[in-house]
Amino acid sequence: MVKHKHYRPPGKKKEGNAARYITRSQAVKQLQVSLPLFRKLCILKGVFPREPKKKVKGNHHTYYHLKDVSFIQHEPLLERLREIRAYERKVKKADAKKNRDRANLLRQRRPTYRLDKIILQRYPNFIDALRDLDDCLTMVHLFAALPAIEERIEVKRIHNCRRLSHEWQAYISRTHKLRKVFVSVKGIYYQAEVKGQKVTWLTPHPLQQVLTEDIDFNIMLNFLEFYEALLAFVNCHLYRSINVKYPPILDPRLEALAADLYALSRYFDANSRSAVLDPQASSLSGSGNVESQQIGDSVSESELRLAQLQHQLPSNEPGALMHLVKDVAGEEEEDDDTRECKKLFKDMKFFLNREVYRESLLFVIPAFGGTVSWEGDGAPFEENDESITHQIVDRPMHGRQTLAREYVQPQWVYDCINARIILPTGGYLAGRDPPPHLSPFVDNEAEGYVPDYAETIKQWKTAGRSEVLPLPGVGKEDLEDPQNLLAEGVIDRAKAKEAVEKKKKMMALERQYHDELNKELHGIPHSSSVSNIDNHISGKETEDKEEFDDDRELAKLGMPRRKRGKLEAVEKGIKRKKDHIDVIRERKRKLKESQKSKEG
After folding, report:
1. Distance (Å, rounded) from C-alpha 487 to C-alpha 492?
2. Would you tell me how many other CB atoms lie within 10 Å of the CB of residue 268?
3. For residue 227, with 0-12 CB atoms within 10 Å meaning exposed, 13-18 middle and 19 or more buried, which class applies?
4. Would 352 be classed as within a structural domain?
């Protein structure tokens, strides 16, 4: 008898991929569940299809690992979902018999389930949950902006997503963990650094969302169900790490005015002051003991709300939102980035016009140490407050303007955050076309293309740090020691002495260029008096003119390409700096003439 290659006698055990992988239909049959329920279990348990090297049943099947299927089969949630399915049949039976009382009673006693154990199984450590938080935050923020649809998306799911997203944003803003912001066509990208882990998420623009019929909301709602539970656990852990009670109890008046983020900031302030006044109570609440939980459960929600509102500030206090950035006891030590972000908008007060996207700016401005208000009820201060330094507008201003404040576009806030400096407001004034909005997630130097505005921001940052930056088009390699060029044989000893003199001039020019940039950054007009450096350079310009003869040109031709390139770079740098000196002198000459004409 001739045996085929894949012949297996009856009763013999399967081996290889045939024993390790099964198709989706086989898995559904083994678990004895419907296909939608199988998909839901896979989403909740984190089971994904596999790609075996050899697909025994053919390429048109979806394969799962046998251990993953057995992992679902022994899950207690599977039995709980079967009970819920049997209970739903009772409700349908009561409706079919037109027994409304029994149907309503059964709906009120409908069994539920929790995902606590599944989250603990999938994320044994808190850092593991933070690493998997990107898709979670994006999904929750997406549903927080969607409209409620009958028989698809319930209103309570939308409200729950909005609450969870605001709680997350309030913690990031409170602890100054936000690092990058980028406004794109898809939405607004945010990146925060929590516990050493970078978390990036996307929020949609505040536009009316149009939902099409080809979207499978059942799959998305299954993911959302898991993400809601995960984000609630993460928020609870983060709030308790800074000794703030969770879930927060907010001012109902501010909640009715849709000022949830501001209400959370006041809640942080109330907890901060209660932690300072009673550190023992705060330590007990942060420890999460069973006794404190029992005491908390015995108090009604109305009493908790009244006790909480006693610590809150009046709604019209100007500095109410700045209490969001106060330190509380038990907070972890701040790193250098957090301290830098905390002081970016320090002592600045912002007011948002009604045409500006309020929710995003209410999130990012306090995260970098600023105070913000808006036009409407529940705002901490009004538009006529004289202490306002910047007013955010998004259309030309035709009415009365206050000279004591800057009227800038929202992009100025985001560009300042990404650059970590206060940029000049000249290019962002109301009615002007702003500079290009550069993405902080792209490394332009690595890709070989650096936009002009990125170079300008880099020079402003260097000027703000009191560093000497080379002139535009000149690198720091032009300032290297001429002795190195002498040792490499690029120039002889006489030329090395000349290069030393040129290096001194270049350093003097760098300092002068740095001063000019610093004045431009702070909006100080250039001085009309000529500096001593310019006098020194102008006196010796005619003496130190370099004359190239034929011998030198021949010597350059005989040099290696790398050494010749270095020498040419030095010569080009000197020429650019001389041109820059001429521009500065011409500017000062015109300034002198204008002053003389005014005096005459």
Report:
1. 9
2. 24
3. buried
4. yes
* Domain at 349, CATH number: 3.40.50.10190
Indicate if 150 and 247 belong to the same structural domain: yes
Mark whether 246 and 338 lie in a shared domain. no
**Amino acid 401: pLDDT:** 78
- Long-range contacts made by residues 583-590, C-beta under 8 angstroms, separation at least 24? 584/512, 584/516, 584/534, 585/530, 585/534, 585/538, 587/526, 588/526, 588/528, 588/530
Q: How far is CA 380 from the centre of its chain?
A: 25
Residue with tokens 């705060």: 282
Give, for 97, the enclosing helix (H) or strand (E). Answer: none
The last residue of a domain, from among 441, 461, 490 = 441
10 Å Cβ neighbour count for 241?
17
Instruction: Report how far apart, in Å, the C-alpha atoms of 388 and of each of 319, 351, 357, 391, 416 are.
Output: 12, 7, 19, 7, 18
Residue 199 gets which letter from DSSP?
A: E
* CATH number of the domain within which 55 lies: 1.10.1660
Q: What pLDDT score was predicted for residue 531?
A: 46
At residue 507, the pLDDT reads 75
Q: Which of 390, 278, 293, 395 is nearest to 330 (CA)?
A: 278
Non-local (6+) Cβ contacts of 587 within 8 A are 526
**How many other CB atoms sit within 10 Å of the CB of residue 287?**
11
Structure confidence at residue 329 (pLDDT): 37
d(CA 19, CA 562): 63
Cβ 356 vs Cβ 392: under 8 Å:
yes
Q: Are 63 and 55 in contact (CB under 8 A)?
A: yes
324 within domain boundaries:
no
Whether residues 265 and 369 fall in one domain: no
Mean pLDDT by 10 residues, the chain (600 residues): 57 69 91 92 91 85 91 91 90 90 89 90 92 94 86 86 91 91 93 92 87 84 94 92 82 58 66 50 37 41 42 33 37 74 88 88 91 84 87 82 85 90 86 86 66 75 54 44 45 60 74 70 52 47 47 62 74 80 83 77
Tell which of 524, 544, 559 closes a domain: 559
Domain that holds residue 400: 334-441
Residues 338 and 307 in one domain: no
Co-location of 263 and 358 in the same domain? no
Task: Say yes or no: 265 and 121 in one domain.
Answer: yes
**Does 95 map to a domain?**
no
Same domain, yes or no: 68 and 132: no
What is the spatial distance between Cα 578 and Cα 286, in angstroms, rounded to a whole number?
65
Tell me the two tokens of residue 312: 């809150």
Residues 6 or more apart in contact with residue 429 via CB below 8 angstroms:
406, 407, 408, 409
Stated as kind and residue range, the H or E segment containing 350 is: strand 349-352
> Quick one: pLDDT at residue 322?
33
pTM of the model: 0.66
Asked whether residue 212 falls in the same domain as residue 269, the answer is yes
What per-residue confidence (pLDDT) applies to 483?
Answer: 45
| Position 264 in a domain | yes
Q: Percent helix, strand, coil in the chain (nearest 5)?
A: 55, 5, 35
List, in order, residues 6 or more apart from 172 with CB less than 8 Å away: 178, 192, 194, 363, 367
* Rounded CA separation 444/161 (Å): 36
**Total domains present in the chain:** 4
What tokens does 518 get? 């610093």
